[in-house]
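Late entry, evening session. Most of the bench is empty. Finally got around to the prediction I had been postponing all week. Sequence below, unchanged from the version circulated by S.P.
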Amino acid sequence: MNPATNTSQSLGAVAEAAAAQYLAARGLTVIARNFRVKGGEIDLICRDAATTVFVEVRRRASADFGGAAASITLTKQRRLILAARHWLVQHGDCACRFDCVLFDGDRLEWMKDAFRLD
């Protein structure tokens, strides 16, 4: 395995764990992690009252070049939506939203309702 990939994966796992803890402290319940389907993956799936929240976690060393937010392209959004549709088919259609938890260096930003299903 490429050591750089291993380091990237471990930093990503740390960011996902920190995001889960952050969201839980704000009243969300984490119900799944790393939900994968062919063509897409969702880092965290949470409940916020009656709403299912699909969460993308992104980490960048700094905010240079647009930071973590800029890395969530339209293509990435489509992959998240694809995975969310699969989740909803398996677990029942319900109100949902897409949030992003962004780490730029040590700064964390929670973007609620970052984009829409349609």
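Two things to note before I forget:
Helices lie at 3-25, 67-70, 74-91.
The domain at 3-115 is CATH 3.40.1350.10 (Trna Endonuclease; Chain: A, domain 1).
Will write this up properly tomorrow.
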